[in-house]
Amino acid sequence: NNIYSGFDLSNEMLNVARSRSNLINYFEGNAEKKFPFENNSQDLAYLVDVIHHIVDLNVFFNECKRILVPEGKLIIVTDSEENFSKRGLMKYFPEILDIERLRYPSIEILIDNAKEAGFEHKGSYLSEGTILIDDNFISNLEQKSSSATRLIDDEAHMRGIERMKASKGDDWISSYTVVLFERLT
After folding, report:
1. When you count CB atoms within 10 A of the terminal residue's CB, does the N or C end of the chain come out lower?
2. How many CB atoms lie within 10 A of CB 89?
3. SS3 of residue 28 by DSSP
4. What is the largest CA-CA distance in the chain?
5. Which pLDDT does position 1 carry in this prediction?
6. 76, 110 Cβ separation under 8 angstroms
7. Share of the chain above pLDDT 70, in %
8. Cα 26 to Cα 36, 46, 57, 182, distances in angstroms
9. Nearest 5°: phi and psi at 124?
Protein backbone atom coordinates (compact mmCIF):
# COMPACT_ATOMS: atom_id res chain seq x y z
CA ASN A 1 0.00 0.00 0.00
CA ASN A 2 1.61 3.25 -1.14
CA ILE A 3 1.53 6.41 0.92
CA TYR A 4 1.95 9.66 -0.99
CA SER A 5 3.23 12.84 0.62
CA GLY A 6 4.11 16.25 -0.67
CA PHE A 7 5.28 19.57 0.63
CA ASP A 8 5.38 23.15 -0.48
CA LEU A 9 6.44 26.47 0.96
CA SER A 10 3.11 28.10 0.09
CA ASN A 11 -0.02 27.40 2.13
CA GLU A 12 -2.06 28.72 -0.80
CA MET A 13 -0.56 26.09 -3.13
CA LEU A 14 -1.03 23.39 -0.50
CA ASN A 15 -4.72 24.28 -0.26
CA VAL A 16 -5.06 24.04 -4.04
CA ALA A 17 -3.34 20.64 -3.99
CA ARG A 18 -5.53 19.41 -1.11
CA SER A 19 -8.64 20.41 -3.06
CA ARG A 20 -7.53 18.16 -5.92
CA SER A 21 -6.84 14.98 -3.97
CA ASN A 22 -7.32 13.63 -0.49
CA LEU A 23 -5.06 10.64 -1.24
CA ILE A 24 -1.91 12.63 -0.54
CA ASN A 25 -0.59 13.90 2.79
CA TYR A 26 0.53 17.51 2.40
CA PHE A 27 2.97 19.36 4.63
CA GLU A 28 4.36 22.85 4.74
CA GLY A 29 8.08 22.79 4.10
CA ASN A 30 10.95 24.55 2.41
CA ALA A 31 13.03 22.58 -0.12
CA GLU A 32 16.02 24.75 0.81
CA LYS A 33 15.93 23.61 4.43
CA LYS A 34 15.14 20.45 6.36
CA PHE A 35 12.39 18.47 4.62
CA PRO A 36 9.34 17.58 6.75
CA PHE A 37 10.06 13.82 6.62
CA GLU A 38 11.94 11.32 8.79
CA ASN A 39 15.29 9.80 7.84
CA ASN A 40 15.08 6.90 5.36
CA SER A 41 11.31 7.26 5.11
CA GLN A 42 10.71 7.79 1.38
CA ASP A 43 11.17 5.51 -1.61
CA LEU A 44 10.92 8.28 -4.18
CA ALA A 45 11.41 12.04 -4.27
CA TYR A 46 9.95 13.80 -7.30
CA LEU A 47 9.99 17.48 -8.18
CA VAL A 48 8.87 19.39 -11.25
CA ASP A 49 10.15 22.84 -12.14
CA VAL A 50 11.43 23.51 -8.61
CA ILE A 51 15.21 23.03 -8.77
CA HIS A 52 15.84 26.49 -10.26
CA HIS A 53 14.39 28.01 -7.07
CA ILE A 54 16.91 26.17 -4.87
CA VAL A 55 19.84 28.40 -3.92
CA ASP A 56 21.92 25.83 -2.02
CA LEU A 57 21.98 22.62 -4.05
CA ASN A 58 24.24 20.98 -1.47
CA VAL A 59 21.57 21.29 1.25
CA PHE A 60 18.87 20.13 -1.16
CA PHE A 61 20.67 16.97 -2.30
CA ASN A 62 21.75 16.09 1.22
CA GLU A 63 18.16 16.40 2.41
CA CYS A 64 17.03 14.16 -0.45
CA LYS A 65 19.61 11.60 0.60
CA ARG A 66 18.53 11.87 4.24
CA ILE A 67 14.85 11.15 3.57
CA LEU A 68 15.31 8.50 0.87
CA VAL A 69 15.85 4.84 1.66
CA PRO A 70 19.02 3.23 0.25
CA GLU A 71 18.51 2.79 -3.50
CA GLY A 72 15.64 5.30 -3.30
CA LYS A 73 14.99 7.29 -6.46
CA LEU A 74 15.19 11.03 -7.01
CA ILE A 75 13.52 12.41 -10.14
CA ILE A 76 14.07 16.02 -11.12
CA VAL A 77 12.07 17.52 -13.98
CA THR A 78 13.76 20.70 -15.14
CA ASP A 79 14.84 22.72 -18.14
CA SER A 80 18.10 22.37 -20.00
CA GLU A 81 19.74 24.16 -22.88
CA GLU A 82 18.18 21.60 -25.23
CA ASN A 83 14.72 22.40 -23.88
CA PHE A 84 15.24 26.13 -24.25
CA SER A 85 15.89 25.74 -27.98
CA LYS A 86 12.67 23.77 -28.51
CA ARG A 87 10.09 25.29 -26.17
CA GLY A 88 7.16 27.35 -27.34
CA LEU A 89 7.88 29.77 -24.55
CA MET A 90 11.15 30.78 -26.21
CA LYS A 91 9.62 30.91 -29.69
CA TYR A 92 6.92 33.38 -28.69
CA PHE A 93 8.71 35.12 -25.81
CA PRO A 94 12.40 35.16 -26.86
CA GLU A 95 13.14 37.84 -24.26
CA ILE A 96 12.86 35.10 -21.62
CA LEU A 97 15.77 33.03 -22.93
CA ASP A 98 18.64 34.89 -21.23
CA ILE A 99 16.66 35.07 -17.97
CA GLU A 100 15.97 31.33 -18.02
CA ARG A 101 19.59 30.47 -18.75
CA LEU A 102 20.57 32.31 -15.57
CA ARG A 103 17.83 30.74 -13.44
CA TYR A 104 18.27 27.05 -14.24
CA PRO A 105 21.31 25.04 -13.13
CA SER A 106 22.78 22.94 -15.91
CA ILE A 107 22.23 19.20 -15.92
CA GLU A 108 25.98 18.79 -15.34
CA ILE A 109 25.79 20.92 -12.18
CA LEU A 110 22.87 18.83 -10.92
CA ILE A 111 24.75 15.60 -11.60
CA ASP A 112 27.90 16.87 -9.86
CA ASN A 113 25.99 18.06 -6.77
CA ALA A 114 23.98 14.85 -6.58
CA LYS A 115 27.13 12.74 -6.82
CA GLU A 116 28.76 14.70 -3.99
CA ALA A 117 25.71 13.97 -1.82
CA GLY A 118 25.79 10.22 -2.52
CA PHE A 119 23.63 9.72 -5.60
CA GLU A 120 24.31 7.91 -8.85
CA HIS A 121 23.03 9.49 -12.06
CA LYS A 122 20.89 6.85 -13.77
CA GLY A 123 20.02 8.84 -16.90
CA SER A 124 18.53 11.98 -18.35
CA TYR A 125 15.62 11.94 -20.74
CA LEU A 126 13.85 14.48 -22.87
CA SER A 127 10.09 14.68 -22.38
CA GLU A 128 8.05 16.62 -24.91
CA GLY A 129 4.47 17.26 -25.76
CA THR A 130 2.33 19.73 -27.63
CA ILE A 131 -0.60 21.93 -26.75
CA LEU A 132 -2.88 23.51 -29.34
CA ILE A 133 -2.57 27.28 -29.37
CA ASP A 134 -6.20 28.35 -29.07
CA ASP A 135 -8.05 31.27 -27.48
CA ASN A 136 -8.12 29.61 -24.06
CA PHE A 137 -4.38 28.89 -24.08
CA ILE A 138 -3.61 32.44 -25.20
CA SER A 139 -5.92 33.83 -22.51
CA ASN A 140 -4.04 31.89 -19.81
CA LEU A 141 -0.71 33.28 -20.98
CA GLU A 142 -2.18 36.77 -21.18
CA GLN A 143 -2.76 36.37 -17.41
CA LYS A 144 0.94 35.45 -17.07
CA SER A 145 0.10 31.90 -15.99
CA SER A 146 3.69 30.91 -16.71
CA SER A 147 6.04 32.14 -14.01
CA ALA A 148 8.64 32.92 -16.66
CA THR A 149 6.34 35.45 -18.37
CA ARG A 150 6.26 37.40 -15.11
CA LEU A 151 9.98 38.05 -15.50
CA ILE A 152 9.76 40.12 -18.68
CA ASP A 153 8.37 43.62 -19.05
CA ASP A 154 4.80 44.24 -20.20
CA GLU A 155 5.83 45.30 -23.71
CA ALA A 156 7.79 42.09 -24.32
CA HIS A 157 4.89 40.11 -22.88
CA MET A 158 2.39 41.74 -25.24
CA ARG A 159 4.67 41.15 -28.25
CA GLY A 160 4.73 37.47 -27.33
CA ILE A 161 0.94 37.36 -27.04
CA GLU A 162 0.64 38.97 -30.47
CA ARG A 163 3.02 36.35 -31.92
CA MET A 164 0.85 33.63 -30.38
CA LYS A 165 -2.35 35.14 -31.77
CA ALA A 166 -0.78 35.14 -35.23
CA SER A 167 0.02 31.43 -34.76
CA LYS A 168 -3.38 30.35 -33.43
CA GLY A 169 -4.03 26.77 -34.45
CA ASP A 170 -0.34 25.82 -34.34
CA ASP A 171 1.17 23.58 -31.70
CA TRP A 172 2.96 24.96 -28.65
CA ILE A 173 5.90 22.68 -27.82
CA SER A 174 6.41 21.81 -24.18
CA SER A 175 9.86 20.35 -23.48
CA TYR A 176 11.50 19.25 -20.23
CA THR A 177 14.47 17.18 -19.14
CA VAL A 178 13.86 14.38 -16.65
CA VAL A 179 16.95 13.55 -14.58
CA LEU A 180 16.95 10.29 -12.63
CA PHE A 181 19.19 9.58 -9.63
CA GLU A 182 19.48 6.68 -7.23
CA ARG A 183 20.66 6.99 -3.64
CA LEU A 184 23.72 4.91 -3.03
CA THR A 185 23.65 2.68 0.03
Report:
1. N
2. 23
3. strand
4. 54
5. 72
6. yes
7. 100
8. 10, 14, 23, 24
9. -130, 135
